[in-house]
Amino acid sequence: MITMLPLSILPLFLAASWTINIAPGPDMLYVLTRSAGMGRLAGIVSALGIAVGCLIQTGIVALGLASLLTAVPLVYDFIKYAGAAYLIYLGLRTLLTSRHTLITPTVKPASLWRIFLQGVITNVLNPKVALFFLAFLPQFTDPARGPIPLQLILLGTLFNISGTLINSVVALLASTFGSWLKRNARATTLLNWLSGGIFIGLGVRLALLKRQ
């Protein structure tokens, strides 16, 4: 199945995915919060909930985008430039943020099932996740390789695997990792600049991408 993906750009996709996922953000904050408040198992369960939510978002984007482009071909350019603008916006916002404050708030105890559902619902009901996938994933597809929806699902799964692995490691090392990030503004700033640069680069790449 992996051969359906354009292998020439797969290393770029994986590198971008790992860099974006490793930068501190809302998902990592949620995992850190649960891990710090209820233990590592709760953190891992929250990471799995986030993963399921992202997979649902990927499926929605894959099926919806394919149907839309088939019905209205002119929408392709709109989606392309809107997605490029969104990625560049994310990059600029990240660059202008000197650091993410990862101070974990106090959380009320909850069952593991509830923590899992919260992770799922938080992602499914977050339109920013769908917007990101809509802007990020399509530029790594190739119609000559097979059905675009399937390629989007495969790419989304690969992106999600990297994010889940990183969040799981964060859950396992929550006390050390969380306090280290809070003490090291330079490290967090470096991650922000790296992620911001990748967002902007991907946005420019998407804007210049020609329809195949």
Automatic annotation (TrEMBL):
Keywords: Cell membrane, Membrane, Transmembrane, Transmembrane helix. It is found in: Cell membrane. It holds the Pfam family LysE. Its main location: membrane. It is a multi-pass membrane protein. InterPro entries: LeuE-type (IPR001123). The chain crosses the membrane at residues 43-66, 78-96, 116-140, 152-178, 190-208. PANTHER family: ARGININE EXPORTER PROTEIN ARGO (PTHR30086), ARGININE EXPORTER PROTEIN ARGO-RELATED (PTHR30086:SF20). This is LysE family translocator. The lineage of its organism: Bacteria, Bacillati, Chloroflexota, Ktedonobacteria, Ktedonobacterales.
